Amino acid sequence: QVQLVESGGGLVQAGGSLRLSCVASGRTSNYAMGWFRQAPGKEREFVATIRSGATVTYYADSVKGRFTISRDNAKNTVYLQMNSLKPEDTAVYYCAAADRTFSSTTYASRAILYDYWGQGTQVTVSS
């Protein structure tokens, strides 16, 4: 059983930065780790995923070039560095873990393929 706890959300002005963290209670070094987000009235959408070896990453087109996902397996932690934030980035951000290896963004973006989820952290970007 894996438990995920996100932190680092908050209120920031457009153009600003935030770094989200997700700490796993169990050993997740062999898991792919991802971030999803859900805005009010919208479906949960894929943001980014990093494979277990930390050398392969996948991003949604909407965040590519602005967000960076990374992980520290020694700390069982995955990060999401968010730069150049926009009001449309406002959402609850969820960390997720998948006991599989993704081979493309198409597969990595499918929420149903993730086994564990955190409770989420709110990110609000003001204009």
Q: How does this model look, in words?
A:
The chain is mainly beta. Helices cover 3% and strands 46% of the residues. The strands form 2 sheets. Strands 2, 4, 5, 6, 9, 10 and 11 form a 7-stranded mixed β-sheet that branches. A hairpin with a 4-residue loop joins strand 7 and strand 8. The longest helix has 4 residues. It is globular. The termini are far apart.
Unreliable sequence segments: none
Describe the sheet with the most strands: 7 strands, mixed
SSE order, as H and E?
A: EEEEEEEEEHEE
What is the SS-derived class?
A: mainly beta
Task: Compose a concise summary of this entry.
With 127 residues, the chain is mainly beta. It is built from one helix and eleven strands, in the order E-E-E-E-E-E-E-E-E-H-E-E.
How does the SSE layout of this entry go?
Elements: E1 4-7, E2 10-13, E3 18-24, E4 32-38, E5 45-50, E6 57-59, E7 67-72, E8 77-82, E9 91-98, H1 105-108, E10 116-117, E11 121-126
Parallel strand pairs: 2-11
Antiparallel strand pairs: 1-3, 3-8, 4-5, 4-9, 5-6, 7-8, 9-10, 9-11
Label this structure with key terms:
single chain; 127 residues; mainly beta; four-stranded antiparallel sheet; 1 helix; 3% helix
